[in-house]
Amino acid sequence: MNWITNYVRPRINSIFSRREVPENLWTKCDSCGTMLFHRELTDNLHVCSNCGHHMQITPRARFRALFDSGIFTEVSVPEPVADPLQFRDQKKYPDRMRAAQKSTGEKEAMLVASGEIGRTPVVAAAQDFSFMGGSMGMYVGNAIIAAAEEALKLKRPLVLFSAAGGARMQEGILSLMQMPRTTVAIQMLREAGLPYIVVLTHPTTGGVTASYAMLGDIQIAEPNALICFAGPRVIEQTIREKLPEGFQRAEYLLEHGMLDRVTDRRELRDELVGILRMLMQQPPPVWGDLPPPADPVLEDHADDSDDGAETAAKPEE
């Protein structure tokens, strides 16, 4: 009886019981609807393998793919005053901040780090659209200034990845003040002769587009990224006209001279390696495997045989 109770019944229950399946194993592509396995999606840098649609990616995941061996050091950012306007809409601003921090695991909407890209030391900053829409507030302004100061101190180029819906309304005029602050920080880099490269990702809109996101020495965008100040729906409602197909998308801006290039996320690192080495006046990158080193023993034998051949060729005196 004990054998049946202790062994047989648990085995039967385990066979017929419902197995728990981990969540988020599959992700549906927003563009084509293909179900993508999470490991495949991660390895593909959150780009759909079926249609090439570029999904949102966190700053940490982006930095792991960007920096050499995925190694980087975070740059500290000064903390701003919390909830200076005591703003409240449907929720209190501090409650929204705590909810965003819990869902993303990040302190704020921008991450700043330093490391090497193709053996070129750089400082990088990336916005997190999943954190309150990547909105630009006082912390984001402080982060960009901290990134610029770190680049100036170390004499390194600055690479910035933008992804934002605009200024953070919960901080009012204080968020709009970050536009001139960040513009001054970028001007400091320009006066020091340090490159500033911007990678515009989907979406980059509002006050972010009107300030630091469009001031790069090199302007790169990911495919089909929405880049604008006011969105197409707002413009259509204002002018009461239908906008052209692809208006305000990365390819449209490239055709009209607003961008330098549109680059697939999977090819972006190699692209940045070449650009950074060129702007920093370094030798061009070496792609592929280097030829094997020559064997010194074989070289000595070759030299001896050459000497013998020269001796034999001389006529006898």
Question: What is the secondary structure topology, with strand pairs?
Answer:
Blueprint: H1 2-16, E1 26-28, E2 35-37, H2 38-43, H3 59-66, E3 72-74, H4 93-104, E4 110-117, E5 120-127, H5 138-154, E6 158-164, H6 173-176, H7 178-191, E7 196-204, E8 218-221, H8 232-239, H9 250-255, E9 261-262, H10 265-279, H11 296-313
In short:
It contains eleven helices and nine strands.
Structure commentary:
It catalyses: N(6)-carboxybiotinyl-L-lysyl-[protein] + acetyl-CoA = N(6)-biotinyl-L-lysyl-[protein] + malonyl-CoA. One of its GO terms (cellular component) is acetate CoA-transferase complex. One of its GO terms (biological process) is fatty acid biosynthetic process. It holds the Pfam family Zn_ribbon_ACC. It is a single chain. The chain is of the alpha/beta class and 317 residues long. It has two domains: 22-55, no CATH class; 56-279, Alpha-Beta Complex (2-enoyl-CoA Hydratase, Chain A, domain 1). Helices cover 39% and strands 15% of the residues. The strands form two sheets. Strands 3-4-5-6-7-8-9 form a seven-stranded mixed β-sheet, sandwiched between helices. A two-stranded antiparallel ribbon has the order 1-2. A hairpin with a 2-residue loop joins strand 4 and strand 5 (120-127). The longest helix is centred in the last third of the chain and has 18 residues, at 296-313. 32% of the residues are buried. The mean pLDDT is 89.
Question: What is the makeup of the main sheet?
Answer: 7 strands, mixed
Q: By helix and strand content, what is the structural category?
A: alpha/beta
Distance between the termini: 112 Å
Oligomeric state of the chains in view: single chain
Q: List SSEs in N-to-C order.
A: HEEHHEHEEHEHHEEHHEHH
Helix content: 25-40%
Total E-strand runs:
9
Average pLDDT score: 89
Subcellular location: Cytoplasm
Catalytic activity: N(6)-carboxybiotinyl-L-lysyl-[protein] + acetyl-CoA = N(6)-biotinyl-L-lysyl-[protein] + malonyl-CoA
Domain CoA carboxyltransferase N-terminal: 25-294
Cofactor: Zn(2+)
